[in-house]
Design a protein that fits this description.
302 residues; alpha/beta; Arc Repressor Mutant, subunit A; two-stranded antiparallel sheet; 10 strands; Transcriptional regulator, LysR family; WH_DNA-bd_sf; transcription; LysR_HTH_N; DNA-binding
């Protein structure tokens, strides 16, 4: 098992740049520090420093170890601060990663139930690519990841995908753009400019298959990883754009767009990915229950 005291000594020397400076800061003798780092290198079976003249330089392995040590002691400082300063009435911190393929309005509606719990919750949101968020989940810097797909097969992260719901997709256009074309649905997709999600979005592949099945040859003028940016271009009249049908009313209201068509043959799915096989975190349970009973349940109950 890793000796964290020895790791701290290594970290202090690496940050200080020399054993002598680190020993002064730690109030230890240089011999003690040198001996402890030697024991750490022996236990790990690798060299962490190289002596160049009177200086110490990190080896490649040492630089890797330092990056991990930075995270270890940063988390340790955060833990100490949280425990030392936590009043009894302090809110629960709920750390959520949102895959940037998930529409922001969907993320908001999924997370809202967590804010309505009896015990106060403070949500900390991070938006990033799914692969990077899963790494953060694995080292417990996130409690939950919201994504438009389950955890990819072969991912070296132990986690569980909980399906929150799914819905079809709706096509929208700015009114003046729609008025330029006389074709009806879905023929308008053959002639009007179209904005589509980027290649990393889970809905992209089934959408392209749907075009092929219905012999639609769209004139694609833009691809977007960020759905909010795609909707902004759509609102400006750049092209027809899509959004999950569950937020169709919201898109019409906020973007002044009109619905030109809808299909349930292409669906968008949304998942909560956690380290828990059985959901126990109260905020995650609230999100899961509200998504299945209200957000997506109501779509098909209407």
């Amino acid at each position: 098992m890793l000796n964290y005291k020895q790791l701290h000594y290594f970290w202090a020397v690496a940050k200080a740049g020399s054993i002598i400076r680190a020993s002064e800061r730690l109030n230890l003798t240089p011999q003690t520090l040198s001996g402890q780092i030697g024991l750490l290198e022996e236990a790990l079976g690798v060299a962490l420093f190289l002596r160049v003249g009177r200086r110490l330089e990190l080896t490649e392995t040492g630089r890797l170890a330092l990056s991990y040590a930075d995270e270890v002691f940063q988390i340790g400082s955060e833990l100490e601060e949280a425990l030392r300063n936590r009043p009894e009435s302090r809110s629960i911190q709920f750390r959520v990663g949102v895959d940037d393929a998930v529409p922001k309005s969907i993320a908001y509606r999924l997370l809202t139930p967590a804010m309505e719990l009896a015990e106060p919750v403070r949500i900390v949101c991070r938006e990033d690519k799914l692969a990077r968020l899963l790494v953060e989940l694995a080292i417990q810097r996130l409690d939950l990841v919201l994504a438009d797909r389950p955890m990819p097969a072969g991912t070296n992260v132990k986690g569980y995908s909980h399906k929150l719901g799914e819905c079809g997709i709706t096509f929208f256009a700015e009114p003046r753009l729609a008025a330029q074309f006389s074709e009806k649905w879905p023929g308008i997709l053959d002639v009007a400019p179209l904005l589509i999600p980027g290649k990393e979005a889970a809905v992209r592949a089934p959408l392209m298959r749907w075009f092929d099945i219905h012999q639609i040859r769209p004139r694609i003028v833009g691809e977007f990883d960020d759905s909010a940016l795609m909707q902004a271009f759509g609102q400006a009249g750049t092209g027809i754009f899509i959004a999950p049908s569950v937020i169709a009313d919201e898109v019409r209201r906020e973007h002044g767009a009109i619905v030109i068509g809808q299909t349930d043959e292409v669906t968008e799915q949304f998942y909560a990915i956690s380290m828990e096989r059985r959901l126990t975190h109260p905020a995650v349970v609230a999100i899961n229950d509200a998504a299945q009973k209200e957000l997506f349940g109501n779509l098909y109950a209407r």
